[in-house]
Amino acid sequence: MHLLQSISRKEYIMNRILIVGRLLSENRGIDTLVRFTLKHPELGHIIVCGKDVKGHQAGQALLSLQRNGIDKDGRIVGAAGRHPFSTHSHTDIESFRRQIIIYDLIGCEDLKTVNAMIDRHM
Q1: In this predicted structure, what is the pLDDT of residue 22?
Q2: Taking all residues of the chain, what is their mean pLDDT, rounded to a whole number?
Q3: DSSP string, 54-87
């Protein structure tokens, strides 16, 4: 929460990003993010940072989704969480994967590092 609050208070960061938030689950949370992304074609980059939620490992699942997609049952291939399933169609997941680039800063809680990533890619 500390990193999220720090980012949201920095106008120079908020003016360069579309959304900031927490990703709490490897299923509903990611499904919500996929849905939002597909409705906003201007969203092309996602930075995953901060602590990953223990057990759910939503950040790791999101990275796995980007790298590997889902299997025929909707399971996120390579995700380590408890219930890494998507309710989206394969078509939607493939559109999501083509639309975005995800940068892995899982574990990083340093605002300067996150801002440097934004400077390089946004």
Answers
A1: 92
A2: 95
A3: TTT-HHHHHHHHHHH-B-TTSBBTT--SS--B--
Query: Tens of pLDDT along 45-86?
Result: 999 999 998 889 999 999 999 999 999 999 999 999 999 999
Where are the alpha helices (H) located in the chain, listed in sequence order? 2-8, 11-14, 28-39, 58-68, 90-99, 111-121
Taking a C-beta distance cutoff of 8 angstroms, is the pair 76, 65 a contact?
yes
CA distance 52 to 30: 13
CA 86, 95, 22, 27: dihedral to nearest 10 degrees?
A: 0
* pLDDT surpasses 90 at 1: no
Q: How far is CA 7 from CA 10, 38, 50, in A?
A: 5, 24, 11
Do 82 and 26 meet the contact criterion of CB atoms below 8 Å apart? yes
**Distance separating alpha carbons of residues 121 and 104, to the nearest angstrom:** 13
For helices 28-39 and 58-68, what crossing angle results, to 10°?
50
